[in-house]
Amino acid sequence: MNNLTDMPDLPDIASYAAPIYVALIIAEILFVHLRRVKGSYETRDASTSIAMGLGNVTSGIIFATTVYAGIFAFFLWLYRFAPVKWEFGILSMVACFVLDDLRYYWVHRFSHTIRWGWADHVIHHSSQHFNLSTALRQPWFSFAKGYFVSVIPLVLLGFHPAMIAFAGSINLFYQFFIHTEAVGKMPKWVEAVMNTPSHHRVHHGRNARYLDSNYAGVFIVWDRLFGTFVEEDETHPVRYGIVKNIGTYNPLRVATHEYVGIWRDATLPGLSLQQRLAYVFAPPGWSHDGSRKSSAEIKADFVRRNPDEAGKPGLGGFISTVPAAASDIPDLPSEPASR
Amino acid sequence: MMLLLYLAGSALAIGLIALLMHRLGHSAEHQFADEAAARDAFLEEFPDAGVSRLDLGANGRAALLELQDGYGLIRAMGRFSLARQFALADIARLSRRGASLQLRLTDYADPVFVIDFGDETTATRWQSLLSFDTIGTREKTG
Ligand SMILES: [Zn+2]
Ligand SMILES: [Zn+2]
Fold first, then answer.
1. A261 to B108: CB separation less than 8 angstroms, yes or no
2. What long-range pairs does A282-289 form, CB within 8 A, spacing at least 24?
3. Residues B66 and B124 grouped into a single domain
4. Could you report the predicted ipTM of this complex, rounded to two decimals?
């Protein structure tokens, strides 16, 4: 048990990480250039990604003494009500880390399946490249989406807010290293338990079969457990990005584009209140007139065009009911959608 | 003060990484080999779009398409490409300078499309096609 004051000062990983990130990005650029490893870099794309990372850290510094301090103070207040309080130690830290990773899985999943969360998270997915710099393409105002409430159960389970923050920062640090094409598949046991570059490539894919899969942070077991795991299939190379890719490198537009989309949709004339709310909270791709497609509809549409693919990983729940001539069209989204 | 130093240092790091990539030749933009390649790339994104006509820009980096229903564009987005279907109502502003056409679109995430056809006749043809304003409220300049 501990009280509110006996937490050790935990290192702030984010403040040590930047030089490591920069060094490894430069190394990856050089290795990709020399064709020693698989991957691709593009000047403007990577510059924008790193600038987004800089904006993310800067926003964290700017709001550290206001918004984030307020959230942390709220958690500290809540922590008083935890019936059991775990002392800081290896076991409690491991438990906290694993439970926080489970929390991350659901927060990440809801970031893909609720448009309000997607407006923030889409930023991370908005590059057509997948390299270490993509990991830094992060949103600037994540606190606005309110997903920090997901931390409440961990606090009430007796984990000190500082311990949870530390677990979260290790989780994000780990995730930097899985944004790469340089590493193929890792040993079987690693691929079975851990989130790996291969699994996370799938997560960044816009191929119909790869949409809405592999939400894991560190442990891929959550996806296996909750039915969202899709294995990378080398016969279907991952095409990175989002269903409707963005055409800008302007960091401000990258940071805000989906919020602007939500605003424009929700303020369309002649909609009911329910329809306006659906434009904010329904899954991305929802539209009041059916003119766009959600991930589920894109998958179903793909299976309709390619009946042979029915039942394959990522397309499992979709049965082709209408026979259609198999086409040689790659498994890309077939229609424009808002994501 | 510390924040300013941090921002300046980070901006310098981004600049140096960008310079490194540029000098190594990683700024090259995608080029469509010919009209068929641009058409194939467009149909990969929109397999149901009936393409009636496609005009590829002189540098092979952008194309405008007339579809059975509306219009399409495809252009280089760095090493990759970016395709959109659009209607006249999606054009906020259209301007032409010689053989080059610039479309400002209402699409916040893809606001500008520029294509240089290399010949003024094609540019003028597209200008008049896209200037046919069914709403009558948009600004058009020529
Ligand atoms: Zn994601
Ligand atoms: Zn990622």
1. yes
2. A282/A114, A282/A115, A283/A113, A283/A114, A283/A115, A284/A112, A284/A113, A284/A115, A284/A118, A284/A122, A284/A337, A284/A338, A284/A339, A285/A243, A285/A337, A285/A338, A285/A339, A286/A115, A287/A338
3. yes
4. 0.89
